[in-house]
Amino acid sequence: MRRKPLFAASPSSFLPSRRALLVAGAVMAAGASLPGFPLAAGAAPGTRRIPSSGEAVPAVGLGTWITFNVGNDPLLLERSARVMEAFFAGGGRVIDSSPMYGSSQATLGYGFDRLGRPEGLFAADKVWTSSQREGPAQMARSRRAWKVPRFSLMQVHNLRGWEAHLPMLLEKKAAGEIGYVGITTSEGRRHGLFEEIMARETLDAVQVTYNPLDREVEERILPLAAERGTAVIVNRPFRQGALTRRLEGEKLPDFAAEIGASSWAQLILKFILAHPAVTVVIPATTRPEHASENMAASGGPLPDAAMRERISAAIGGL
Ligand SMILES: NC(=O)c1ccc[n+]([C@@H]2O[C@H](COP(=O)([O-])OP(=O)(O)OC[C@H]3O[C@@H](n4cnc5c(N)ncnc54)[C@H](OP(=O)(O)O)[C@@H]3O)[C@@H](O)[C@H]2O)c1
User: CA 242, CA 222: separation in Å to the nearest integer?
Assistant: First the structure.
């Protein structure tokens, strides 16, 4: 089954349909007022600036681990393309993947073939090998799988081989072959070493786990990122779905309406985005309607400090 693509499938042009423009417009309009929220000067609602460059990026991105590892199954490939379509229609641009994620990179390539690449696509990938020699070849393979001319951000996945890869990545950045350099971890792993690297190296971005129940990064990593001018990408916002599954069927607290959150997923994303050090959160999904719902969370008001505690307590208590 081939559905009509939402965007013209041309690698160099990006022609959003009337529907896409309407959806994106609604998302942006919803974010028109953010009382008290410290948006960087000039950043449009629903976007954040990368501190090292000032480039604005949409604050909700798309993860691909497991959800996009669909092999050659035509139905699942098409489903993934529909997720990308909904994500782009909602104004999404930041996509995160890794050579560790099975066929996810090739699934993205399939989606770009079907939909075209949106203007301003922010392609974030990772180098994931302990071999210094293998790093550049792996990155070249990843780029071919994604079918993109260049990665916006290249991260050292889980710090694997970081001593060897970081100088190589910084050289590639200086040569204009990649846009930004970063490191990742998740679920609190190796935070001590992570922090040391953050303090010592010049990094554009770090990627860590953060959500209303996993808040360790609030202690040192998020403040350090703010101090060092490092962008923060948040992974596992829903604990790989364990959190959203646990909350399914539970009544949303009445205060959620005050910040325009109509689901637990939106409440969690708004909790994350309200931390001033956070640049982008990258939920993963297999469902187009969830991609739209997640994108819409970046619009409208965000919780203040007191409401963030209420969100965390409400979720922790269930
Ligand atoms: N070390 C690292 O570098 C590292 C580690 C972990 C993750 N990551 C990155 O972070 C991304 C996100 O983390 P994750 O994949 O672990 O999972 P996650 O985003 O925490 O959770 C994904 C799950 O949430 C569900 N979900 C998404 N939107 C929803 C919504 N609106 N309502 C209800 N359920 C929803 C999805 O189910 P449905 O399919 O039903 O929507 C899916 O099962 C990864 O994909 C990857 O790109 C990086």
Answer: 24
